Write a sequence for this structure.
């Protein structure tokens, strides 16, 4: 054996020898350490308008999964058995819908919001809702059948006698974040969405607010779903969000307190 081979043999002999079963056991142990505890995982189905705020406020909690879409679409998924623990809806009617199916253990009004008519920044904004008659551009809103903001917009347009007249120019979106995207891309001349959607969106400007109209002031409700109410992690998140809202933690994201007083609020 050459000196080089002797040195290599000595170095090899000094290393620990791992058997195949030992390596397999170590791999499984490491994987178990990295895998999150399923009992600590919480899934919240949230109205698209609330997603940016939730993602920011819960960014440090890896156990929380947020699934965002139109409130109606999410309610239908829950009805069909989707694995959701909490449901944050921009329309209390959808919470009532699930409650009537005995899928809600507890509900609470969490946030307030305001419907607005917005335009791309720099565009000549309509001074009133009636000014939409003078334009020819497309107008975006959420699908009224599944998106609360779209339903609220439809109600306001109907009361103003504009729904049938503007119908050929309306573009339906899957949720308010899609309306915001259309406005940012200047693919529509106006769109209905929430005041909270304009936070951090300088490319879009509010033209008309509907604070003083039926359907213009919105309450977002949070529901603790069955059987998640029996899980401590789900209930803890439910109570945490109630406290954050009571302390105005959502204010920086464009939300107000709901019209109905929050339990725990000052």
């Amino acid at each position: 054996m050459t000196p080089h081979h002797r040195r290599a043999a000595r170095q090899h002999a000094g290393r620990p020898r791992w058997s195949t079963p030992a390596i397999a056991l170590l791999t499984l142990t490491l994987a178990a350490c990295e895998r999150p505890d399923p009992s600590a995982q919480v899934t919240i189905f949230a109205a698209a308008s609330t997603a940016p705020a939730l993602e920011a406020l819960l960014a440090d909690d890896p156990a929380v999964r947020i699934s965002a879409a139109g409130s109606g679409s999410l309610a239908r998924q829950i009805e069909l058995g989707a694995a959701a623990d909490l449901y944050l809806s921009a329309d209390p009617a959808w919470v009532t819908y699930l409650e009537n199916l005995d899928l809600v253990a507890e509900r609470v009004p969490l946030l307030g919001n305001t419907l607005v008519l917005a335009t791309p920044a720099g565009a000549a904004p309509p001074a009133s809702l009636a000014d939409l008659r003078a334009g020819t551009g497309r107008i975006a809103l959420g699908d009224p059948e599944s998106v609360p903001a779209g339903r609220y917009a439809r109600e306001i347009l109907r009361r103003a006698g504009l729904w049938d007249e503007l119908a050929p120019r309306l573009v339906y979106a899957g949720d308010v974040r899609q309306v915001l995207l259309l406005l940012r891309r200047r693919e529509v001349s106006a769109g209905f969405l929430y005041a909270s959607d304009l936070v951090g969106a300088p490319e879009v400007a509010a033209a008309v607010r509907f604070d003083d109209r039926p359907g213009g002031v919105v309450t977002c409700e949070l529901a603790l779903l069955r059987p998640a109410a029996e899980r401590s992690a789900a209930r803890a998140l439910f109570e945490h969000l109630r406290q954050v809202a009571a302390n105005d933690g959502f204010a920086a994201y464009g939300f107000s307190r709901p019209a109905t007083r929050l339990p725990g609020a000052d």
Q: What stands out?
A: Confidence is low (pLDDT under 50) at residues 8-16, 18-35, 261-266. Strands lie at 42-47, 64-69, 86-89, 104-120, 139-142, 170-173, 190-194, 204-209, 217-225.
